[in-house]
Design goal:
Blueprint (H helix, E strand, L loop, with lengths): L3 H15 L5 H14 L1 H5 L3 H12 L7 H38 L24
Helix pairs in contact: 1-2, 2-4
């Protein structure tokens, strides 16, 4: 946030929310009203992201409007499915590489040569 006035107001409003003398949704509403009327806030390119973060911190999930919650859940599900797709591709590529080495007669694991174990020295044996 670039607007010192908004920072000061947000701190005051947050204290009211913690003291339960102001509803969290009301605080978010006040922030949005301030941003709409403040030229400094309107020039701030990150203000919308900051309002979203404040809203997520202040409002419990049950108080976030259902449409917003649905959108957030859809975005999260989309990110999750994208991650799964990448993981599946990586697994497929790894299994293709493994199949290719087996077809060429190469083993992935090479057995170590057996080493004859020497008998341990007895404590009475000369060194």
């Amino acid at each position: 946030m670039q607007c010192d006035r908004l920072i000061k107001l947000a701190k005051q409003w947050f204290l009211h929310v913690r003291e339960e003398t102001m509803a969290p949704a009301r605080m978010v509403q006040f922030i949005k009203q301030h941003v709409a009327s403040c030229p400094i806030c309107q020039e701030d390119p990150d203000i919308e992201d900051e309002i979203v973060r404040i809203t997520e911190i202040i409002l419990p999930d049950s108080k976030i409007p259902k449409a917003v919650r649905m959108k957030q859940e859809a975005e999260e599900a989309e990110r999750h499915s994208a991650v799964e797709e990448v993981e599946e591709k990586v697994e497929e590529e790894a299994s293709e590489e493994t199949e290719g080495t087996e077809e060429n007669g190469e083993d992935e694991f090479v057995e170590e040569e057996e080493v004859e174990e020497e008998e341990p020295l007895s404590p009475d044996a000369p060194q």
